Write the structure tokens for this entry.
Amino acid sequence: MPDKEYIAVLIQSLEKKNEILDKIISRNKEQKILFSDESSDPDRLEENMQEKSGFVDQLNELDEGFQQIYDRVKSVLQTDKESYKEEIRTMQKLITEITEKSATIQAQEQRNRDLAVKRFSAVKKGIRKARASNMAASQYYKSMANLNVVDSQFMDQKN
């Protein structure tokens, strides 16, 4: 494959990475809503997390492929910068966008992690409260049931 084609593949790889990062940003926004809304569907949250995991896997594959191709054309790009000036400029622009999106994703992930901790803490409190209520109700019913029991020794003593 000629160097021009390798460089075109590098650019396509960066463009694809950029698109996947947009999808992750979108899923993070949805995740924020899901963590913030106490009535949100836990199944949708699970789907969201699985989708993001798939996108991360795709990014890892793209990074590996990119590195392999870049290693093949690195010397050409460094020695013949003038011939590939436009392609290099395009890649630099894409890498800048990718870096900015990566920073956005890191900030989103931190906020979502904080929201998740709050959400799960509230769920735990609700579970503890429900358990305590169930225990209290159970003890109440047991004690009430015992009040209605009349010892047999007090019955039928008129014989």
Notes: Residues 32 and 108 are 8 Å apart (CA to CA).
